[in-house]
Write a structure and sequence with these properties.
34% of the residues lie in helices and 28% in strands. The protein is built from 16 helices and 26 strands. The chain has a seven-stranded mixed β-sheet. Strands 23-22-24-25-26 form a five-stranded mixed β-sheet, with helices on both faces. A three-stranded antiparallel β-sheet has the order 5-4-9. Strand 20 and strand 21 form a beta hairpin. Helix 3 packs across helix 11 and helix 6 packs across helix 7. It is globular, with a radius of gyration of 28 Å. The relative contact order is 0.11. It binds glycyl-adenosine-5'-phosphate (GAP). The site of glycyl-adenosine-5'-phosphate has 19 residues, from strand 13, strand 16, strand 19 and helix 12.
C-alpha cells in the first residue's frame, strides 16, 4: 500500500514539498523560526480554506438543523473554570534526570518494567559526564562511546524519548492553557508591590500561592478548544434562530495549547485550527445521535480521500474517556508513524451546560412543549440537552490529506528515460488552484489569449492561475506538485481553430477542446 512506503522518508519528502511549493513555511524563518510555529503560504492558505469550507458546507450549509458561530478566542476566565480546563486540562510532565529532556509520560516509549535500558547521549563527552554524575549518586553504569548500559527501569515502564534513560523525575500535571493578561495592568509592578508589602519573604507553596493570586487577577486564556463558545452562546442562539432541540452549533477557528511535546510537523503544534460542532439533543436519544454523527464524519473524510482505507474508527476504552464523556470514537488516519487521531466524536452528556448553568447562574435548560415528561407523564418536558460533539483538527486534517495525496511515479522524460514525477492527487474540492492556464510560448498572441481565459475562470469563481515561466514540461511538473487538477494550454493551433488542450493531472492525458467550452468543462469536472 502506497501510504506505508518509506515512512519517515515520506514525511520528510512532504515537508520539503510543502516548503518548496509554498504550502507551509516555518514561522518567522528569517529570525531562526519559532518552535512548532508554521505559516501557511499561498498554496497552503487555499488548501486550508478549501478544507474548512468543505467542512462548513457539509456541516452547516447542507443541514436545516445546524447553525454557525464565530466566538472570541479570549473568553471570560470563568468559562475555563466551569469547563474544568483550569483545574484539569493537564498532561503528565516528566523530566529526564540524565539529558534533562521534558516530555509527556503518556506518550513516552514503553519499556519492560525492570529491564536494563541502553542510554544514548549526543556524544562521548556527555556520556562521560553523565556516568560520573551517576557514580556520585552511587549508581554504577558501563560506558561504551556515547552509550551507557546497566540502568534499570522502574515500575512505570517507560523511558526518555530523547536518550532512552529510565531515570526520571516524578510525574506532575502540566496545564496546557496559554495564559495572558488583559488590560493596562503591569503584572511585574503588581507582584513587586505585593512582595514589598510582606513582612517576611514567603517561600515555597506560600510564595507560589501569592504569585498565582496576583497573576490570576488579570489573567485571561487563549481558548484551548472552540467548543466552549457554543455552550456559553447556547441560549442566545436558541433565542435568535428558529432552532429546536435537536440542533447543532458549529464553529471553526484557532485554538491554542501549550503542548509539552509538539511533533510531526503540523500534526501537534501550539497553535492550530479546529472544526467543531456541538449537537444538542434530548437525553435518551444521545446514543443514536452519536452513531449518526460518527458515520457522517467518517464518510466525509473518506469522500475526499484517495485511500479511504487509511481512515478508520476506534472506540475509546473506558479509561481513555475524558471526564465529561460517556462514550467517544476517534476518526484515525494512518500517518507514516502509525494510526493517530484526526477527529474525536464524543457524547459529552449534559456535563457542559450543567456546569455553565451552575457557575454562571444562568439557566441553560430547554423546554420542549411537544415532549411528554417521563417522570410525570404530562405534556411538556424541561431538560438539560445532551451534547454530541464531532471535534476535528483542520490543520491536522490538512496534513492527513497532503499525505493521502502525495504520490510518486516514474514517467518517461523528453529523452524517453524514466524520471520521477511527484504529484499531489488532491480532491478537486481541496486543490488550491483548480486550473492553470499556460501559453505554450510568450509570443504570437498566446499570452493574451491565455490571460483572457484565466479571467473568464476568475469570473466564474474558479481559482485559477496564469503561468508562463519555464518550458511547458517544467510547468506541468510544477502544477503536478501543487495538486492543480487541470492545465489548459494555449498553443499555435489555438490561434488557428480556437481550441486549447486540457491536461488531466492524474492521468496526464490531454484532450483538445474549443476554448469557448473550457470554462464550463473545468467547472463541471471540479464539481
Ligand atoms: N472539544 C474537544 C476537543 O478539543 P480534542 O481531541 O482535544 O477534542 C479535537 O481536539 C481535534 O483537534 C483533535 O482530534 C486534533 O485533530 C486537533 N488537535 C488537538 N490538539 C492539537 C494540536 N496541539 N495540534 C494540532 N491539532 C490538534
Amino acid at each position: 500500500m502506497q501510504q506505508q512506503e518509506g515512512t519517515t522518508d515520506r514525511m520528510q519528502k512532504l515537508v520539503s514539498l510543502c516548503k518548496r511549493r509554498g504550502f507551509v513555511f516555518p514561522s518567522s524563518e528569517i529570525y531562526g523560526g519559532v518552535r512548532s510555529g508554521y505559516d501557511y503560504g499561498p498554496l497552503g492558505v487555499e488548501l486550508k480554506r478549501n478544507l474548512m469550507s468543505a467542512w462548513w458546507r457539509d456541516m452547516v450549509h447542507s443541514r436545516e438543523n445546524v447553525v454557525g458561530l464565530d466566538a472570541s478566542i479570549i473568553m471570560h476566565p470563568r468559562v475555563w473554570e466551569a469547563s474544568g480546563h483550569l483545574a484539569g486540562f493537564a498532561d503528565p510532565l516528566v523530566d529526564c534526570l540524565i539529558c534533562k529532556e521534558r516530555f509527556r509520560a503518556d506518550k513516552a516509549p514503553k519499556l519492560e518494567p525492570g529491564l536494563a535500558a541502553p542510554v544514548t547521549l549526543g556524544d562521548k563527552e556527555r556520556a562521560r559526564v553523565a556516568q560520573e554524575a551517576l557514580a556520585a549518586k552511587g549508581i554504577v553504569v558501563e560506558r561504551q562511546g556515547k552509550t551507557l548500559t546497566g540502568l534499570t527501569g522502574d515500575e512505570r515502564g517507560y523511558c526518555c524519548p530523547n536518550c532512552g534513560s529510565p531515570l526520571l523525575s516524578a510525574e506532575r500535571p502540566f496545564n496546557l492553557m496559554l495564559r495572558s493578561s488583559l488590560g493596562p495592568v503591569d503584572q511585574i509592578a503588581r507582584i513587586a508591590q505585593l512582595l514589598e508589602a510582606q513582612e517576611t519573604m514567603p517561600r515555597g507553596a506560600e510564595l507560589r500561592a501569592l504569585l498565582d493570586g496576583a497573576i490570576k487577577e488579570s489573567a485571561v486564556y487563549l481558548r484551548p478548544e472552540t467548543a466552549q463558545g457554543m455552550f456559553v452562546q447556547f441560549l442566545n442562539v436558541l433565542q435568535t434562530t428558529a432552532q429546536k432541540v435537536p440542533f447543532g452549533i458549529a464553529q471553526m477557528g484557532k485554538s491554542f495549547r501549550n503542548e509539552i511535546t509538539v511533533e510531526h510537523f503540523i500534526f501537534r503544534s501550539y497553535e492550530f485550527e479546529q472544526m467543531e460542532m456541538e449537537f444538542f439533543c434530548e437525553p435518551g436519544t444521545d446514543d443514536q445521535w452519536l452513531t449518526y454523527w460518527t458515520e457522517q464524519r467518517m464518510s466525509w473524510w473518506r469522500r475526499l480521500a484517495n485511500h479511504p482505507e487509511n481512515f478508520r474508527l476506534r472506540a475509546h476504552e473506558p479509561a481513555e474517556l475524558a471526564h465529561y464523556a460517556k462514550a467517544c470514537y476517534d476518526v484515525e488516519f494512518l500517518y507514516p508513524w502509525g494510526w493517530g487521531e484526526l477527529e474525536g466524536v464524543a457524547n459529552r452528556t449534559d456535563y457542559d451546560l450543567k456546569k455553565h448553568s451552575q457557575v454562571s447562574g444562568t439557566n441553560l435548560t430547554y423546554f420542549d412543549q411537544q415532549a411528554v415528561d417521563p417522570e410525570t407523564g404530562k405534556q411538556g418536558r424541561r431538560f438539560t440537552p445532551y451534547v454530541i460533539e464531532p471535534a476535528a483538527g483542520a490543520t491536522r486534517g490538512m496534513l492527513a490529506f497532503l499525505l493521502d495525496a502525495y504520490h510518486e511515479e516514474a514517467v518517461p522524460d523528453a529523452k524517453g528515460e524514466d524520471a520521477l514525477r511527484v504529484v499531489l492527487k488532491l480532491h478537486p474540492t481541496l486543490a488550491p488552484i483548480k486550473a492553470a492556464v499556460l501559453p505554450l510560448v510568450k509570443k504570437d498572441g498566446m499570452p493574451e489569449k491565455a490571460r483572457e481565459l484565466v479571467h473568464q475562470l476568475f469570473d466564474t469563481g474558479i481559482n485559477s492561475t496564469y503561468d508562463e515561466q519555464h518550458a511547458i514540461g517544467k510547468r506541468y511538473r510544477r502544477h503536478d506538485e501543487a495538486g492543480t487538477p487541470f492545465c489548459i494550454t494555449v498553443d499555435g493551433q489555438t490561434l488557428q481553430d480556437g481550441t486549447v488542450t486540457v491536461r488531466d493531472r492524474d492521468t496526464m492525458q490531454q484532450e483538445r477542446v474549443p476554448s469557448a467550452e473550457v470554462v464550463a468543462l473545468v467547472g463541471e469536472r471540479i464539481r
